[in-house]
Amino acid sequence: MGTGWGWMMMIFWIVILAAVVTLVAVWLVRRSGTGPDSGGAGTHGRDPEDILRERYARGEIDEEAYRRMRDELRS
Fold it and tell me: What is the pTM of this model?
């Protein structure tokens, strides 16, 4: 009976350690601003027109959408 408790305690600590590692990883991703909730990698504090130009250059938006959004930003 004594060895059964040892295995259960080991499993318990493995679960606790895995939970702590997961929480730290989530915290680091959110802090770095690259997570899914961050609005995109590296967009914090950047000029909106620069972001818009990059989206146009990557082909995410067409010229008409680019000009419309640029004019909205400038107004």
Answer: 0.43
